[in-house]
Write a structure and sequence with these properties.
The chain has about 325 residues and is α+β, with helices and mostly antiparallel strands. Helix content is about 35%, strand content about 15%. This is Malate/lactate dehydrogenase. Keywords: Oxidoreductase, Plasmid.
């Protein structure tokens, strides 16, 4: 891969682990490496802009890593949104783009309200169904703030991210109740049985509806595939997943005073934090991840199974052998 692309993807994965989002961090690196080796992900894509109207465009990512495609999409939205006030990019022919907050953060830093969506592989049964029709279909919403960090909601529309199922399987742990069903539709906490069955949407029929609309937002206006049309690289690393993403950015400076908007968002954050009983702090959306990141500024905490996989991967690729560490952490220098 080009150095700049490799650095971008590496940074996004390390930041996810620093924020405690282990399902989207270095857990994914062996999968990315295998998909790059097998052809499911293109290391040197020739991305192509289509249907560019000046503030809305479609980007054919040529099977790039999702982070590479999304950075181009976010850069477009920032540039064109500064001129027109609002901009959007639909991405097609892409792959997993990491944690959604990585993208909304960039837009928030420039004073944009943002919506980011994506399709994924087929792992979720619609409410009342049994077949894997939907993906985990992440939704990220971001708002700029004059506080320490933006107001951010970054969530899968399934009860848990699929990467958390993989992490539970690797760690030999059970899933929380209510996350999945087995192949016969019975509730299960066994990640292996859940992989054969399906994950379920959060919030019953309401979450299922949101997940379905994210499929439409992310894939209906481009050539991207829906989840049920997709072969996931988790199952077949040579698969060109053709994920679809959508990023929309509204430049607050175009419709209001940016500083006023940011101050208003900060007021909302502080009101949420101060709403607990007996002075107990309540987290505003995005707070737990940012607090984790500050605490982990000089190291990358990793589950032991992920650390072991990185040791194996390094050895397979011919790097100097890395001895397994005895603690729960790997230093950022070593990573």
């Amino acid at each position: 891969m080009p150095d700049a692309d490799a650095e971008l993807v590496s940074y996004s994965l390390v930041q996810a682990d620093q924020r405690g989002i282990y399902s989207h961090g270095l857990l994914r690196l062996p999968l990315y490496a295998e998909a790059l080796r097998m052809g499911g992900i293109n290391p040197v894509p020739s991305m192509d802009w289509r249907e560019d109207s000046g503030s809305v465009a479609v980007l054919d990512a040529d099977a790039a890593l999702g982070q590479v495609a999304m950075q181009a999409a976010v850069d477009y939205v920032l540039e064109r949104g500064a001129q027109s006030g609002i901009a959007a990019v639909a991405v097609t022919n892409s792959s997993h783009y990491g944690a959604g907050g990585f993208w909304s953060d960039q837009l928030s830093a420039a004073g944009f309200l943002s919506i980011v969506t994506s399709t994924t592989g087929p792992v979720v049964a619609p409410h009342g169904g049994l077949e894997k029709v939907l993906g985990t279909n992440p939704l990220t919403l971001g708002a700029p703030s004059s506080g320490d960090w933006p107001l951010t909601a970054d969530l899968a529309t399934s009860n848990g991210a699929y990467g958390k199922l993989i992490a539970a399987r690797n760690e030999g742990k059970e899933l929380p109740e209510g996350w999945a069903v087995d192949a016969d539709g019975n509730p299960t906490t066994d990640p292996a049985a859940a992989a054969e069955g399906a994950m379920i949407p959060f919030g019953g029929h309401k979450g299922s509806a949101i997940s379905a609309l994210i499929e439409a937002f992310s894939a209906s206006i481009s050539d991207a595939t829906y989840a049920f049309e997709t072969i996931d690289i988790w199952s077949h690393p040579a698969s060109r997943m053709n994920n679809g993403h959508l990023v929309i950015g509204l430049n607050t400076a175009a419709v209001s005073d940016r500083r006023r908007t940011e101050a208003r968002v900060s007021t909302l954050q502080e009101r949420i934090r101060g709403s607990g009983p007996n002075g107990r702090t309540v987290f505003s959306p995005g707070d737990p991840e940012r607090i984790h990141e500050e605490q982990n500024a000089d190291h990358v905490p990793l589950p032991s199974s992920t650390a072991d996989q990185l040791v194996t991967l390094a050895n397979q690729l011919g790097f100097e052998p890395i001895r397994p560490v005895s603690t729960h952490h790997l230093s950022s220098e070593r990573t």
